[in-house]
Amino acid sequence: MNFTSFTDRFFRQLPVIFPIVGLFLIALTGYNVIQFGRQGVLGTGIALGTCAELLLYTLLWLAACDRRRWGAIGFILLTAANLLLYFLAPKDLLWHQISDALLPFDALLCFFLLFFFKRFR
After folding, report:
1. Rounded CA separation 121/84 (Å)
2. Fewest C-beta in 10 Å: which of 38, 51, 89, 103?
């Protein structure tokens, strides 16, 4: 795969909000890994769970920026699973500490994905 071809597809096929969100998610994932590493807690459940979830969201969003349907569907399913766990799981569950920060943002991004879903291949 040609890198120029990927960046061209990444920045030009969908509205500008998609690559901006992609870059934001990359930066947020990197920031969290660095901060957890500096604090020496990267090996804990909360830190690993948060970084793994952000990495998964980032990879799925980047696939969606490349107009991959499986990326958009995966992002929507991950957000739906997070919402279900957040509202149906007991409040003392570790998941509440891992996934509650970006839930409204992720739900908003799902609407963008659904709105532009016809453009995906």
Report:
1. 28
2. 38
Tell me the pTM.
0.87
Question: What H or E segment, with its residue span, contains residue 67?
Answer: none
Q: Render the burial of 48-69: b for 16+ CB within 10 Å, e for the rest.
A: eebbebbbebbbbbbbbbbbee
Count of C-beta atoms within a 10 Å radius of residue 9: 13
64-118: per-residue pLDDT in tens? 988 889 999 999 999 998 888 888 888 777 777 777 667 888 889 999 898 988 8
CA separation for the pair 37, 31 (Å, rounded): 10
DSSP string, 26-41: HHHHHHHHHHHHHHT-
* Dist CA 84 CA 79 (whole Å): 9
Nearest CA to 95 out of 55, 52, 58, 61 is that of 52
